[in-house]
Design a protein that fits this description.
The chain is α/β, with parallel strands linked by helices. The chain has a single domain, classed as TIM Barrel. It has 13 helices and eight strands. It has an eight-stranded parallel β-sheet with strand order 7-6-5-4-3-2-1-8. Strand 3, helix 7 and strand 4 form a beta-alpha-beta unit. The longest helix is centred in the last third of the chain and has 18 residues, at 230-247. It starts with 16 loop residues before the first helix and ends in a 12-residue tail after the last helix.
């Protein structure tokens, strides 16, 4: 991923169980703040267009279907390198635009490498995605194979039972092993927030993964019953902010699952700006995991340029 020359990658710190166990989230206050962010902050006209372009730049364009084929992944990669039509690009005054990365299964890394040839990061989901229920040895080997195949980012899934049973040491040790297996590849820790039940658990899991060296914390696999939400994002971004204040390391954030409309993308951009500031509105610190989102953003940008909405089927699908 492109990042400033002075960017300091997160490194592991000792697990502070006293701190983790002391974390409490005020659910009512979180819900009120989330409602304020979701409903009261809006951008219009040229400002909305600019924010939507930034959403494209911060998107992990994703295909994680059981029916994925090399051809589908190749189309996804072409779309990632040229997400908007030429006429829209010209009308918006944009010379070049790409998504932040593409996100695929391990078996689809090779066709992605063939098309992208190092021009965009390739994120591979790993560690027995999406459930994470295989041996640690198997999961570590999968990470190693994905990095060897050309993945520059690894989206891992944590073992949810560690969170649900409060075994923070086991979660820390697991995350630390994942971080080490990734080597130079950046690692995004998927918390599966819809499965770990409470906002307290979300906050604690966020802290433990960051202490173990996660470069990003990510909400969901997209396969849970509940995926990214604004309250969860508020809790995770505030954990990132406090971690930065205590350690000096900037950890990235990735909402994923259910972010399918331009409006929802704008809400997550608003969370990032208001909770973390402009520094986090960059691809090296913010990603949106999405597939169908691109179509709606294209439609909104076409409306801005022409005054008319186009039918969704007019837009190329990966």
């Amino acid at each position: 991923m492109t990042q400033p020359l002075d960017f300091k990658r997160n490194t592991a710190a000792p697990l502070d169980l006293g701190w983790v166990n002391s974390i409490k989230v005020n659910r009512n206050a979180a819900d009120r703040r989330a409602a304020s962010l979701a409903n009261r902050r809006t951008v219009k006209k040229e400002y909305q267009a600019a924010w939507l372009i930034r959403a494209v730049e911060c998107m992990d364009l994703t295909t994680l279907g059981g029916d994925d084929t090399p051809g589908r992944v190749e189309r996804l990669c072409m779309k990632a390198m040229r997400p908007l039509r030429t006429d829209l690009m010209q009308a918006l005054g944009i010379d070049s635009l790409t998504t932040g990365a593409v996100c695929v299964y391990h078996e689809m890394i090779t066709p992605a490498v063939k098309v992208l040839q190092g021009r965009l990061p390739i994120a591979a989901v790993s560690t027995a995605f999406p459930a994470g229920l295989s041996s640690l040895e198997t999961k570590l080997r999968e990470i190693e194979l994905s990095v060897a195949a050309g993945a520059t980012e690894i989206d891992i899934v944590i073992t949810r039972q560690h969170v649900l049973t409060g075994n923070w040491q086991a979660l820390y040790d697991e995350m630390l092993a994942y971080r080490q297996a990734c080597g130079e590849a950046h690692v995004k820790a998927i918390l599966a927030t819809g499965d770990i039940v409470t906002l307290d658990n979300v906050a604690k899991a966020s802290w433990v993964c960051m202490m173990a060296g996660a470069d990003f914390i990510k909400t969901s696999t997209g396969k849970e019953g509940v995926n990214a939400t604004i309250p969860v994002s508020l809790v995770m971004t505030r954990a990132i902010r406090e971690y930065y204040e205590q350690t000096g390391f900037q950890v990235g954030y990735k909402p994923a699952g259910g972010v399918s409309t331009a409006k929802s993308a704008l809400q997550y951009l608003t969370v990032m700006k208001e909770e973390l500031g402009n520094d986090w509105l960059q691809p090296h610190l913010f990603r949106i995991g999405a597939s169908s989102l691109m179509t709606d953003i294209e439609r909104q940008l076409e409306h801005y340029v022409t005054g008319n909405y186009s039918a969704a089927h007019r837009h190329a699908q990966p």
